[in-house]
């Protein structure tokens, strides 16, 4: 029986020990590994090693525990990813990414996927393994110069008229199959055939170097080759045949193929010396169209890259505007996972490939939109499929799949769904609005504005109005307490807890705004290009030629019957880019001409003229923040209602650096021309900012006892906006640097619990054009000077007011004859603070010593009369000795709030009592004696005098 009784007990003990071990084991692997959020890598075509920035290192807070603190591997997520990740060192978490197979840059230049690190779990079996968050990896495949240039045509031929020198007879063009810009570009062309009167430029344009004679040569055969920028020669040279004809060929003459535009120079004439060669044919009318192609620049052309909310505000539509696709920041980070198009100078464009979508956090937009309201978005979308592609969707968060409102694309249609909320009436009302538009599927950028004033909805596409071709009705939604979820790029299905109806294309500037955008000028302002064609007609030809522009001024048409007037108008056509910092690159030009003659059968044909405007790289500004970066203030200032001004002397300056040619002052003897030298100069420029962000360096704000504050009325007065969080403050809005300076001067820091605080650090960063240009990080360190209770100041009036103001928060407590921190458990202040306190203490001590010696002569008689007063100090004209033991400790004066308050009151009373001049001390000895009687006990606590040497 005893044996039978022991087994259950042993089993229970074993079970209990097992449970304890399991609980203890569960505590072993506490933390997930950590990796960076984004990696950028480079790999060469013939190499498998990927160079990552930053390096692939996973960290685990469980280190140095074995297994739990070690990294066992990295896992790559994505379809058909030709890369693998391996761990080099489990203990350090170091790893590498390498290619599985040989990569081909020509097939795919870039690869994007996600990676995740996981630790080794709790033991060798990998139990309770933990994974890190998923990080995005962008890898660029570097090109090798594998291919040689190949001419587009097997041969070229052209016909020229004798006796003329051409700017360009014809253009040969070779292409290179390499994927990189360097190796795929054709750097030069060469005419191999010797001793021919032709030359070829780097763009492949062939022109004659002398006037050609039909009687001397009727045809020239040239062999031309091409070189890419890697110095590879064309695989096969091309034959060029140039026929010489004695007859004239009509064309535009004096047209430069390449036209360079320097930013900030205003308008630039495109055809200043252009004229039409008609070969003396009688002309009755001329029609021409000039096309400026800018589809490859940003969102269809060069536009301001401010945030969409700022653009709405600039265009006069700021009230109630909510930006749903903002640039990722501390206050708006829900777009951080979306890939962006970073190739257009910070044009904030988000890419959706049919697998990506984001959830908009609660509170950003009201879930029940009240009419009227406006939705606006930039969209570029390719050919549509049969599936719905959601741009914006508000649906049930859980349980059901009801769509409350959504904007989606379906079969080259754009559709707005707007379901009624539950009401008493159950009537049919409009619910879906359909527009069938070519713009939805043309792969070009277009601006869409939907004005919703239920039951009517108006659509503007690039400023033009479109009415729906189909409107379907539906019943209201039934009542439910289910919360809704707002998503972009897909629709959330609450019943199945997944995304569906993914969007494929590009989106930018998605906004919801309360109220309609009824002003057509506001809508036009939101999409109008900042670049285009312009013409300033001379008065003498203004009525002779008819000129018409398209809405965005990317093309214009001319019509007239007088060649001379027509040529003058062509010579006044110019390119204009009003951006201060335009997007550099090529803008192609094409001139198409139709000529009508008296005899239609012999009417001449004018070929199209093509060229391009090369917008040069703008001189980029350097935004610099400067000011006082380190100062100290007393704790009482931090605790006051005003707080401490953080950036009282902050200055924002923007400069550009350029190279200029200057003539040297000295020249060699006998030389007529001075030497021209290049020098670098820097000059200050003025431009707008759109964001300044103030953040804390170190711990976040503790809302219980500290805050960052600014006068909101001053911000609103300057048409700026402010948002704040526990990490800092963000000021937004397109405005001058001077206004941003003034607002930053107003920012104050308050802390009403400074006992344990000795310093706080802040930094400011300002930017322009949605982060295209970013300033330096200006850091400020503020030290807290903790005020100690000083003994009664003797005759404070001897100290100048400005000096008192500077040192009043740096007094040293001599109570108990020792120097001690007001809060013994706090961190020691900086060395600069200690030096200041010691110096000020010594100065105050010397002042007190001198003042007491002066008063001693006037109070000899008072000393004899007041010997009976126990708390009075004895004065003598002999040497004054003060015995202070700095090594002696004292009781914590802050042991209770009441005791601290009493001591503070006594200190203040003592300061007021002694705040008299030496001239007043003669006539106020009696009064002074009475005051000293009243404060005798306080003085005895603060300072004891040794009168043994009198």
Using brief descriptors, characterize the structure shown.
alpha+beta, seven-stranded antiparallel sheet, 56 strands, globular, 950 residues, 15 helices, disordered C terminus, disordered N terminus
How many runs of DSSP E, i.e. beta strands? 56
- Coarse morphology: globular
Poorly predicted runs of 5 or more residues: 1-6, 20-26, 789-829, 860-950
Oligomeric status:
single chain
Quote the average pLDDT: 77
Based on secondary structure, the structural category is alpha+beta
Residue fraction in strands:
35-45%
Largest sheet: 7 strands, antiparallel
**Span between N and C termini?**
98 Å
The number of helical runs is 15
Helix percentage: 10-25%
Radius of gyration: 40 Å
Give an account of the 3D structure.
By secondary structure, the protein is α+β, with helices and mostly antiparallel strands. It is built from 15 helices and 56 strands. The strands form 14 sheets. Strands 22, 23, 25, 30, 31, 32 and 37 form a 7-stranded antiparallel beta sheet that branches. Strands 24-34-26-27-28-29-33 form a 7-stranded antiparallel beta sheet, with no helix packed on it. Strand 30 and strand 31 form a beta hairpin. Mean pLDDT is about 75; it is low at about 1-5, about 20-25, about 790-830 and about 860-950.
């Amino acid at each position: 029986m005893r044996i039978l009784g022991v087994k259950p007990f042993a089993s229970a003990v074993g079970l209990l020990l097992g449970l304890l071990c399991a609980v203890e084991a569960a505590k072993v692997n506490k933390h997930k590994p950590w990796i960076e959020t984004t990696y950028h890598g480079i790999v060469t075509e013939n190499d498998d090693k990927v160079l990552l920035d930053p390096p692939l290192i996973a960290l685990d807070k469980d280190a140095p525990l074995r297994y739990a603190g070690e990294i066992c591997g990295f896992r790559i997520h994505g379809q058909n990813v030709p890369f693998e990740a391996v761990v080099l060192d489990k203990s350090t978490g170091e790893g590498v990414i390498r290619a599985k197979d040989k990569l081909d840059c020509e097939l795919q230049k870039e690869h994007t996927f996600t990676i995740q690190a996981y630790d080794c779990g709790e033991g060798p079996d990998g139990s309770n393994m933990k994974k890190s968050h998923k990080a995005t990896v962008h890898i660029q495949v570097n090109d090798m110069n594998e291919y040689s240039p190949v001419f587009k045509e097997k041969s070229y031929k052209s016909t020229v008229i004798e006796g003329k020198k051409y700017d360009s007879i014809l253009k040969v063009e070779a292409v290179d199959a390499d994927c990189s810009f360097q190796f795929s570009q054709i750097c030069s062309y060469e005419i191999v055939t010797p001793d021919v009167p032709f030359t070829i430029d780097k763009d492949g344009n062939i022109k004659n170097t002398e006037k050609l004679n039909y009687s001397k040569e009727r045809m020239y055969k040239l062999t031309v080759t091409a070189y890419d920028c890697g110095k590879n020669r064309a695989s096969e040279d091309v034959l060029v045949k140039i026929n010489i004809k004695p007859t004239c060929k009509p064309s535009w003459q004096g047209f430069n193929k390449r036209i360079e535009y320097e930013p900030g120079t205003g308008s630039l004439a495109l055809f200043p010396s252009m004229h039409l060669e008609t070969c003396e044919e009688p002309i009755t009318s001329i029609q021409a169209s000039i096309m400026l192609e800018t589809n490859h620049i940003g969102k269809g052309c060069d536009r301001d890259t401010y945030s969409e909310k700022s653009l709405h505000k600039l265009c006069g539509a700021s009230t109630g505007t909510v930006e749903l696709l903002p640039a990722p920041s501390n206050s708006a980070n829900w777009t951080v996972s979306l890939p962006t198009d970073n190739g257009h100078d910070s044009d904030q464009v988000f890419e959706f490939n049919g697998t990506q979508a984001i959830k908009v956090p609660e509170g950003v937009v009201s879930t029940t939109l009240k009419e009227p309201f406006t939705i606006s978005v930039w969209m570029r979308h390719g050919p549509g499929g049969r599936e719905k592609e959601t741009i914006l969707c508000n649906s049930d968060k859980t349980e059901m799949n009801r769509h409350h409102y959504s904007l989606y694309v379906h079969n080259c249609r754009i559709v707005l769904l707007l379901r009624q909320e539950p009401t008493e009436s159950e009537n049919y009302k409009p619910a879906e609005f359909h527009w069938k538009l070519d713009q939805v599927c043309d792969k070009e950028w277009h601006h869409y504005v939907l004005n919703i004033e239920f039951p009517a909805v108006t659509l503007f596409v690039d400023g033009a109005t479109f009415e729906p071709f189909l409107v379907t009705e539906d019943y209201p939604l039934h009542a439910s307490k289910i919360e809704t979820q707002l998503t972009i790029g897909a629709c959330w299905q609450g019943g199945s807890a997944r995304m569906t109806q993914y969007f494929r294309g590009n989106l930018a500037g998605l906004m919801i705004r309360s109220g309609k955008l009824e002003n057509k000028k506001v809508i036009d302002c939101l999409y109008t290009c900042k670049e285009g064609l312009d013409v300033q007609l001379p008065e003498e030809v203004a009525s002779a030629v008819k000129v018409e522009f398209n809405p965005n001024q990317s093309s214009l048409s001319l019509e007239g019957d007088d060649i001379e007037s027509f040529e003058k108008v062509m010579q006044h056509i110019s390119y204009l880019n009003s951006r201060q910092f335009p997007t550099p690159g090529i803008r192609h030009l094409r001139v198409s001409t139709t000529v009508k003659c008296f005899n239609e059968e012999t009417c001449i044909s004018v070929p199209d003229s093509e060229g391009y405007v090369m917008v040069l790289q703008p001189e980029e500004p350097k935004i610099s923040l400067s000011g006082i970066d380190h100062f100290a203030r007393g704790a009482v200032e931090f605790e006051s209602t005003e707080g401490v001004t953080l950036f009282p002397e902050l200055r924002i300056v923007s400069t550009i650096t350029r190279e200029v040619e200057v003539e040297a002052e000295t020249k060699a003897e006998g030389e007529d021309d001075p030497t021209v030298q290049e020098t670098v100069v820097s000059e200050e420029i003025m431009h707008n900012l759109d964001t300044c962000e103030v953040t804390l360096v170190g711990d976040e704000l503790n809302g219980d006892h500290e805050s960052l504050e600014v006068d909101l009325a001053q911000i609103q007065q300057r048409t700026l906006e402010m948002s704040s969080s526990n990490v800092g403050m963000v000021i937004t809005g397109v405005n001058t640097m001077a206004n941003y300076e003034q607002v930053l001067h107003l920012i104050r820091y308050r802390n009403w619990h400074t006992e344990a605080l000795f310093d706080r650090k802040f930094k400011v960063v300002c930017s322009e054009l949605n982060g295209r240009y970013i300033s330096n990080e200006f850091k400020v360190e503020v030290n807290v000077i903790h005020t100690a209770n000083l003994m009664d100041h003797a005759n404070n009036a001897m100290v100048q007011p400005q000096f008192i103001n500077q040192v009043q928060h740096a007094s040293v407590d001599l109570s108990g004859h020792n120097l001690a921190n007001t809060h013994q458990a706090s961190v020691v202040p900086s060395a600069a603070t200690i030096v200041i306190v010691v110096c000020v203490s010594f100065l105050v001590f010397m002042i007190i010593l001198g003042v007491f010696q002066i008063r001693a002569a006037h109070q000899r008689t008072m000393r004899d009369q007041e010997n009976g007063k126990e708390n009075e100090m004895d004065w003598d004209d002999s040497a004054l000795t003060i015995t202070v033991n700095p090594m002696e400790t004292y009781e914590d004066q802050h042991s209770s709030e009441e005791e601290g308050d009493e001591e503070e009151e006594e200190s203040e009373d003592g300061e007021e009592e002694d705040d008299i001049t030496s001239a007043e001390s003669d006539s106020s000895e009696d009064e002074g004696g009475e005051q000293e009687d009243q404060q005798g006990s306080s003085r005895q606590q603060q300072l004891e005098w040794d009168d043994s040497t009198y």
